[in-house]
Amino acid sequence: MSAGRLLSVLLLLQSRGRMSARAIAEELGVSVRTAYRDVERLQGAGVPVCAEPGRGGGYRLLDGYRTRLTGMTEGEARALLFAGLPDAAADLGLAAEVSAARLKLLAALPGGAREEAARTATVFHVDAPGWYREPERTPYLPLFVDATLTQRVVEARYRRWRAPQEVSRRLRPYGLVLKSGVWYVVAATESGTATAPAKAPAKAATYRVAQVLDATLSDERFDRPRDFELGAYWASYLADFEARRYTGTATIRLSPRGRRRLPDNVAPEVVRAVDATATAVGGDGWVEAVVPTESTMHACGELLRLGVDVEVVAPAALRRAVADTVGALARAYGVTGRA
What we know:
By secondary structure, the chain is of the alpha+beta class. The protein has helices at 3-16, 21-28, 32-44, 74-79, 86-91, 95-108, 111-121, 141-150, 230-245, 256-261, 268-277, 296-304, 316-332; strands spanning 49-52, 58-61, 152-159, 166-179, 182-191, 203-208, 212-221, 248-254, 279-280, 287-293, 310-314. The chain has a five-stranded antiparallel sheet with strand order 6-5-4-3-7.
């Protein structure tokens, strides 16, 4: 029997009023028989739980009774930040703590405020992941949570995009970031292992948690720099990423329909560039604009999403890449000339 579960039953009755044994059981993930036993134990401990038989009946606390046993555990206090992000809390292994913390908060509120909080919770829902992709598997995310909070070194194998793809790193996690449904760990990092550490000084870097192939939490401790601020680091990282991401520009022409479709098919930076540089060409609504590009092949694939509503004017390499791709598609579909 869990004392924490008995407290949860008490707080449920205090925050929600009358509840059936079945409703209590469903809320706490236990059997109805266990819910009955928990209520009986509360009554045996002197808590004035009243039973109301019949249809629409259930259990409730005696009018005017309120418990002050709403103190939060350390884990529940940590979980409060994710009270409005249930999926993120589940990823971090904090789902139970978030549920318990939320229940204690509601129980501590006066009646009117409690009802308003409950009503607000029914009309807002946060869904962090982006469209058109499955959530990433992050089996080592709870380990990094533990490592970040206890300031312990993690031995990790990581898969990156450049060669060699698999590398070993000794990570000192400074914080975790959730960006568009993707988890990243910001860590001071050294190449090498505990048995063969690198001589290079540690520096902060960003790692995608889903790309961690293996991770072990060590007993080695580290001190998080007092002047390190996660939000400031992440803002700087994003700015640097954008500067490195776009290495060239392209001149394109867009139809009116292509411009309307633009936000659903390209990055926001490209949309902003079109808005800033678009000039009319001809009298049919087409515009010409200069947009930032990554590699030739990346820009080719991105612009082809717009089909006949876009034309690449320059550079020649990108225009040729688009033409080659369209030609290959025509041959694949047996098209040898115009109809």
